Amino acid sequence: MDLNAYTEGQILLIDKPLTWTSFDVVKKLRYALKVKKIGHAGTLDPLATGLLLIGTGKFTKKLNELQGLDKTYEGIITIGKTTPSYDLETEFDSEADVSHLTMEDLQAAALKLTGPIDQVPPAHSAVKVNGERAYKKARKNIEVKLDPRSITIHEFQLLKVEGADVHFHISCSKGTYIRSIARDFGEILGVGGHLSSLRRTSIGEYQVSDAEDLEAFVAKVRDYETD
């Protein structure tokens, strides 16, 4: 391992741990690698895991380009319960019976969310409203109105259904909020829904199967420094 190479510039594939923010990962790697120029290509929510692309040195200039690549996700939408954040960051605020829904109903809802669509981002997101992050207003119970954005869902595949838990695979364009997909999926079904699990599996040609565990990578850096 050549630590100078990270100062010059590298692209790192990291498997982001659960509850960590993307900035937490960048901060830890900045300290471990002792680099000044470092950033990531596309935020993952704290309650999501999976592929995070990290650029150091001269490769920080490529981050905007990498952020624009298509992405794939796997996760679970739990139908019948909603939360203000559309995931498990906030408490449940509604509940509905889902026993009448069939697999055909679920497939039809997924089809309606496939292709080019206009999507409203979650109020609990990092989108800026009048210079302030939307989630800061939402956490103060201040109403946040966000404009819809044009995105494309290339594929919305239902993998299996276990009770109210709908396991899915999604391939999508830049700017897609999977939490909003969960909200819209539940609304189409008439019972509400929230995102209860999410893992990013790829960004463009980069795969999470090639990513390094964060703590294992940092330990490897420490071991190199003490050799």
Helix and strand topology:
Blueprint: H1 3-8, E1 11-16, H2 22-33, E2 38-40, E3 48-56, H3 63-67, E4 71-79, E5 81-82, E6 94-95, H4 103-112, E7 115-119, E8 128-129, E9 132-133, H5 134-138, E10 149-162, E11 165-172, H6 178-189, E12 193-203, E13 206-207, E14 212-213, H7 214-226
Parallel strand pairs: 1-14, 3-12
Antiparallel strand pairs: 1-3, 2-3, 4-11, 4-12, 5-6, 7-10, 8-9, 10-11, 12-13
Helix pairs in contact: 2-7, 4-6
Protein model, in words:
With 227 residues, the chain is of the alpha+beta class. It has 2 domains: 3-68 and 205-226, Pseudouridine synthase; 71-203, Pseudouridine synthase, CATH 3.30.2350. It contains 7 helices and 14 strands. The strands form 3 sheets. Strands 1, 2, 3, 4, 7, 10, 11, 12, 13 and 14 form a 10-stranded mixed β-sheet that branches. It has a two-stranded antiparallel ribbon with strand order 5-6. Strands 8-9 form a two-stranded antiparallel ribbon. A hairpin with a 2-residue loop joins strand 10 (149-162) and strand 11 (165-172). The chain is elongated, with a radius of gyration of 19 Å. The chain starts with a helix and ends with a helix.
- Please tally the helical runs, counting DSSP H or I stretches of 4 or more residues: 7
- So what's the overall shape? elongated
Low-confidence stretches: none
Number of strands: 14
CATH architecture of the largest domain: 2-Layer Sandwich
Which class of secondary structure composition applies to the elements? alpha+beta
The CATH homologous superfamily of the largest domain is termed Pseudouridine synthase
H/E element order: HEHEEHEEEHEEEHEEHEEEH
Tally of individual domains: 2
> What is the C-alpha radius of gyration, as a whole number of Å?
19 Å
CATH topology (fold) name of the largest domain: Pseudouridine synthase
Q: Mean pLDDT across all residues, rounded?
A: 91
Strand proportion: 25-35%
Q: Mind telling me the CATH class of the largest domain? A: Alpha Beta
Taking the sheet with the most strands, its summary is: 10 strands, mixed
Note the gap between the termini: 11 Å
